[in-house]
Amino acid sequence: MKDADLKGRGGAAFPAGVKWGFVAGTTPADGQRVVVANGDEGDPGSYIDKHLMERRPHLVLEGMALAAFTVGAQRGFVFVRSEYPDSLPALRRAVAEARAAGLLGANVLGSGLSFDIEIHEGAGSYVVGEETALLASLRGLRGTVSARPPFPAARGWHGRPTLVHNIETLANVPFIAAHGASAYRALSPGATPGTKLVCLNQRFVTPGLYEVSFGTSLRTICDGLGGGLKDGHTLKALQVGGPLGGILPASLLDTPLDFAPLAEHGCMVGHGSIVAFDETTDMRALARHLMKFGADESCGKCFPCRVGLRRGEELLDRPGPVDRAKLEALLETLELGSLCAHGDGLPAPIRSLVEHFPHELELV
Amino acid sequence: MCTGTACWAAERGAALGTVAAGLGVAPASISDDGATSLAPTVCLGLCHVGPAVRDGDVLDAGPGAVDRLLAGACTRAPAPATAVHGAAIPPDGVLLGADDPAWPGLRHALAISAPNGCARP
């Protein structure tokens, strides 16, 4: 796993093999470790994990089992958001099939190893996609964030070392197990190893879910695979990687889809969603929409996020010019003071809009 | 009603107002008789067709979805198109393609690995 250099697909891009090493290296008092698949894909614009849970549930569960046997876990959970009513039955059916085939349960395939998986339905919170909030919700507590450390790898579900991975990350593991690290790295020559699923929104001529090599240019994805925008519209900007991802103006469409090149423009691969905005989009209204989303979905645990995002929405909602210094001070407070990626990530798209569309934001 | 960014990009939030007027129920509230509730939600994962709506456990989206919702006749939204792009990727893809209930990666790993993987006993 370390040779394959699989980077987490949930947004943080943390090397999965390193995380597995953390969990495997723990010495839990009762010997119990846990694997959790994060299927709380709430990022607006993303339907990648939904597709995997509904169309490739065995791939996800197989990835969990491989992780479990490597790190020494006996118990697994898939946390599925309640907004995906078709994902739950698909996963439950696959778990039943795997148990019947001897792939889950006691003494898997006669190996002496035991591992089983429960499918857990979420309760409609966006922030529960953050791993500490997810683990709280999984234990029946309110879905609010906790400070890290301790990281879940050390103290997670009921205090046990817990490996938490995004669904797409786990879906990459069976290929690595079957074909090896070299074959996996060869899927994206000269770029981040493996493949990436990207999903395009309704504004494209052929919106859909595409599996591409890292390093593929956004122009190839948007104009080639997506066919450009429908009804003669032209592209104004893209938001890549979810609501915490930066916004890329159409002039930067030749940027490759990979971590470093996107970071140069204040953007991220994130979850792999690509949301196009056409030439009719009011960027002030977009900024307001994003801030309102952030404020509505804040878990409320830390005040920079709870209060700051609402103040940000109000700043943009009030008619007339926006005080640039005040807005930037607020964004900095969110970035420095928030407990998790929700509050410290939402400034990224707003900063993109400040940089690329200052007149539309009416900054003074 | 989905109010996520992809649906916003599709119709700027207009559908929520149409549905609220059609049902006579304000967003985030319940009708007087308790029979109908209208909840805005972050994303329903139907960003390829938006605007997306959910009635019970049926997810509908795209042209006509709002009318079908108001008529109580939602139909399941179409699945997104899928394709693999890149000379270095197998034609069926690594993550797309058919699901394999035999778990060949796990079988291979168990055949070549020591018991308990990397974990300390």
Helix tally of chain B equals: 4
Unreliably modeled segments of chain A: none
SSE string of chain B, helices as H and strands as E: HHEEEEHEH
Helices of chain A, by number, come to: 14
Number of strands of chain B: 5
CATH architecture of the largest domain in chain A: 3-Layer(aba) Sandwich
**Strand-residue fraction of chain A?**
5-15%
- Given as residue ranges, the uncertain stretches of chain B (5+ residues, pLDDT < 50) are none
> By helix and strand content of chain A, what is the structural category?
alpha/beta
- Helical content of chain A stands at 25-40%
CATH homologous superfamily grouping of the largest domain in chain A: NADH-ubiquinone oxidoreductase 51kDa subunit
Domain NADH-ubiquinone oxidoreductase 51kDa subunit iron-sulphur binding (chain A): 284-330
Protein name (chain A): NADH-ubiquinone oxidoreductase 51kDa subunit iron-sulphur binding domain-containing protein
Family (chain A): Belongs to the complex I 51 kDa subunit family.
Organism (chain A): Paraconexibacter antarcticus
